[in-house]
Amino acid sequence: MALAVQRSFDDLGSPLSQVTFVVLDVETTGGSPASASLTEVAAARYRGGELLATHQTFVRPDERIPPFITALTGISDAMVAGAPRIGEMLPSFLEFLGSGVVVGHNVRFDLSFLNQALESTGRDRLANATVDTLALARRLVRDMVPDCKLGTLASTLRLPHQPSHRALTDVLATGDLLHALLERAGTYGIVGLEELLDLPRIVGHPQSAKLKLTNRLPHRPGVYWFCDAAGHVLYVGKATDLHSRVRSYFSGDTRNKVGRLLRQMDTVHHRVCPGPLTAAVLEGRLIRCWAPPFNAQGKVKRRDPGTVSRDALPSIVPAATDGTKPARRRTVRRRRIWTAEDLAEDPGELLAPMAQRVTSLSKLQRYEDAARARDEAERVRHLLVRHRLVESLRRADRTVLLVEGEGTVELDGGLVVETGSLFGDGHGHGDRQDPAFAISADGHDNERIIVAQWLRANADKVRVLESAGPEGMAMPADRIPRLSELCAALTAVTAESTATSGSTV
Fold first, then answer.
1. What does the pLDDT read at residue 361?
2. pLDDT for residue 248
3. Are 409 and 401 in contact (CB under 8 A)?
4. Above 90 in pLDDT, residue 453?
5. What is the pLDDT of residue 3?
6. Residue 165 is a catalytic residue
7. Which of 33, 42, 237, 249 could form a disulfide with 56 if both were Cys (CB 3.0 to 4.6 A apart)?
8. CA 64, CA 73: separation in Å to the nearest integer?
């Protein structure tokens, strides 16, 4: 099987070695941009650990500099008397900043003054990505220092530059701190910008000690699975970027289920796949085979092949009335199994009565009942669409697809055929548990559903190279009428009938 060349890590992310960082610092007349002004702005541009350029300027404030500020920074009114106003210095500063990643120690303070200056001169606020060395230090070196002030960190870590409450020296000290922290971040497998931006949350995660389990995961598409200490599979997932996806569990996802999963997780295994379609298929096979407890799909029992889904259809029955009280309604639920034979019928005949029901309930102003009837009808339509797609794949027999970014994928009756290294080469990941070639298609419609839904959602990325079936890769699901269309047609017919009957009276 010919496989497309996988994109490199550089294509999938922003390696830190290639990121332009612009470290900045400001000096001001006070602590709030609402009542204070800038007196000095400095910045330094770094790339690959190398200092490329610096920028420094005084700024003439609107008010006199308080004596205690002069004592702290050494900046006096005389020093800024001939300096440019804020509107005059911003163009050169913004040009120096460019699209670089803004870095500062408690960077929110610096940005609050800069954004205030930008807005006051009719400019947009800065939209650059930002890194706060204070937040990084609190996560990476807090146990090594009495506090995380810039001066304390520079002294304890023996940085080349020491801060002095002057913008440029503070910038250079912050630049040294940034690179010292990046070295420590590397022990957590942080090698890309996106991961660095997430690091304050990731390292603060209660299970952050397990981050090392993700270090060997590649930035490639595939399937991953978590196992407990006894080797039992807890969860199976797919990803377009295995490294980033697994690390994302340690940042931002506060669901109890995820917390329990990470507490039980002891090892992470993975399998590289050529692309997202084969990853989705392999994920489905592993879930069906292992039924992991944290996969909701894994708990679903196999159904008879002729049974597509089970839906509860509401029957709204008006209760008896004595003519003086408003009619009461009660909802009776009856279960129906929709079989392949049911869904093979004319979709219009199946959906038309449901559309009629929605329309009738709306006219009676029973909007909640109408909404429930609409939702149930939409579920039935979803079953019809899925059934048509699955049957189309089943009848297509052997089909060869060219999938963008994945190469050629062969289907046989809608099931993916394992040819060559379809699910990866199996080398270099060191997993003892490698099921990729042991778990094959079992003929279950779940895989056809996965394939059909993926092809439908990514039709612009797929080209049919060969198709041996009598109808080819036809996708008749698009011909199933939407409920809104049926309701609109019924309303139009009713309106026309009313108009006609009115004209004959």
1. 86
2. 82
3. yes
4. no
5. 28
6. yes
7. 42
8. 14
**319 & 177 share domain:** no
How far is 338 from 310, CA to CA, in rounded Å? 6
DSSP state of 192: B
Residue 306 has pLDDT above 90, yes or no: no
The predicted pLDDT at position 421 comes to 57
Is residue 266 in some structural domain? no
For residues 177 and 314, membership in a common domain is answered with no
- Is residue 53 assigned to a domain? yes
Q: At 357, list the tokens.
A: 């029901």
What is the arithmetic mean of pLDDT over 15-39? 94
- Strands 267-272 vs 407-412: parallel, antiparallel or unpaired: unpaired
Report which residue type is found at 229: A
Catalytic residue among 161, 165, 179, 444: 165
Q: What is the pLDDT of residue 158?
A: 94
Distance CA 188, CA 196 (A): 10
Given the DSSP bridges, would you call strands 407-412 and 398-403 parallel, antiparallel or unpaired? antiparallel
Give the pLDDT score at 318: 37
Residues in the chain: 505
Question: Would you say the pTM of this structure is higher than 0.70?
Answer: no
How many domains are contained in the chain?
Answer: 2
Looking at 165, 188, 211, which one is the last position of a domain?
188
**Cα(345)–Cα(84) distance, integer angstroms:** 79
| Angstrom distance (rounded) from CA 257 to CA 259 | 5
Phi, psi of 405 (to 5 degrees): 75, 0
Which among 129, 154, 188 is the end of a domain? 188
Judge whether 141 lies within some domain: yes
Structural domain for 28, as ranges? 20-188
Distance CA 385, CA 421 (A): 32
Claim to verify: residue 496 and residue 354 sit in the same structural domain: yes
Look at residue 83 and tell me if it is in a domain.
yes
Domain holding 120: CATH number?
A: 3.30.420.10
Q: What distances in angstroms separate CA 234 from CA 167, 278, 441, one per listed residue?
A: 52, 21, 22
Contact status, residue 165 vs residue 137, Cβ threshold 8 Å: no
Measured in degrees and rounded to the nearest 5, phi and psi for residue 153 equal -65, -45
Q: Answer whether residue 281 shows pLDDT above 50.
A: yes
Q: Which of 79-83, 298-302, 376-380 has the lowest mean pLDDT?
A: 298-302
Q: Cα(59)–Cα(497) distance, rounded to whole angstroms?
A: 78
- DSSP assignments along 131-173, one per residue: EEHHHHHHHHTGGGSS---HHHHHHHTT-SS---SSHHHHHHH
CB contact set of 73 (below 8 Å; sequence gap of 6+): 27, 39, 40, 165, 166
Query: Is residue 291 classed as helix, strand or coil in its secondary structure?
Result: coil
Q: What is the DSSP letter of 160?
A: S
CB atoms within 10 A of CB 160: 9
In the chain, % of residues over pLDDT 90: 41
Question: What mean pLDDT comes out for the span 66-87?
Answer: 95
pLDDT value at residue 153: 96
